[in-house]
């Protein structure tokens, strides 16, 4: 565990009648007697960091310390049951975590539902879309909102946000196995991250000239996977449309290049190779990219539909070898918190950009995601929303322009304390983190979340969701008389793919609508080589019986849909 990882601290006996002492489950939010400046992460012992290169861990104001007093009340309110009391068993589990014995808590549905807000009676097959946040972390999130952002808005938004986010970076970089925080920023979600990459690099005219330095109208070729999230293709389509509008606005005959998106389909041979060595998968993608002269290749870390884990480093390296200078993007929306990232960012990293949602599997609050980029393209990156701290770019601004801009920022009169002398990485992140009233409290609570995951055992969480993905797929397939798409555990993360009991598209749509309206259950479906499948995504508060219930309900709905269709045509 690195020095930047939130460390567990011991606390005295919990008071039997009070949840307030149980807030020690989040000791970095509590004031530790006699050591108020022993900091290293957000609100450590009741302080909040203020940007100061000489004293990065300055103690916060009384408003920030107020979060310490407020947190137990927020936590108690969130944990109350319908009768207005807090279950003693919930307090007992919080006590175990506070005492450093979180690994003793079984990761079962019964025990995990004490820490999560999802109703036990709700049988869900898909927690991969929106995830679920532990109640203690939500309490932290709420306390930050009330005491940091709203309690002292000017101080926090104008002066402290930069230092606070540096703390978040240190913890998240440690979790990801990164040697430095220089190459990450946090954004709202994976879609926002891809839009940053798309605008900053892929559809930047400077990148086109980097790939095609000689005057040319040759299109920029982008390879995407059919298994990828539609957002990637939709965003690319926007830039294609904009380029066509630009061409229409220019005098006829003006040379202007196109953007061409080439979709690589998963063939039966590629899918079959998932059961063994994935050679056909890797070679098929590399050959496709080479044949289409790809300038950009975008593929998933954990594929969305169907669900499987790509050999990220091997595939990236082979693409680079086949297409030197190609910009490789890994859409890892489902990766962080779902699969181990050990070794993914080992030097040299063979891809250029990687981004992941924090809310899906890491279990952070919504609207938090992390974007990583290579050193080569670090100076290209700008947020989708440009605001007061736009730092210019070496791609177009002169050094004099940038220095003049920094001088203006140094001498601003609105109280904004921008870390202009903190180095290029900090200035880059500041551009992302000061956009007026953007709410960073969900990102701040990632520190608390990482601490909680490590107290429970991050390795146990990853193993549990992986185990459930395999067991639940088999259980649903047994009810339906079908089979999982893949049974090779090495390519299964925390999601899995199961053959549906019908291949009729109209029936799949009708059943999905019935399940959503009747049981608030959503099962993402897809077609692969002419057959219909669904993706399942269990969480640590799921169990196998949840998926058997969903499978039986699917058959009931399918029978009702077929009966209605027969009556309609009779």
From TrEMBL:
- In the UniProt record, the signal sequence range is none
What's the protein called, per UniProt?
Answer: Aminotransferase class V domain-containing protein
Q: Which domain of life is it from?
A: Eukaryota
Q: Which Gene3D superfamilies match?
A: Type I PLP-dependent aspartate aminotransferase-like (Major domain) (3.40.640.10)
Q: Does the keyword Repeat apply?
A: no
Q: Does the keyword Nucleotide-binding apply?
A: no
User: What InterPro entries does its record include?
Assistant: PyrdxlP-dep_Trfase (IPR015424), PyrdxlP-dep_Trfase_major (IPR015421)
What's in the keyword line of the UniProt record? Pyridoxal phosphate
- Organism equals Neobodo designis (Flagellated protozoan)
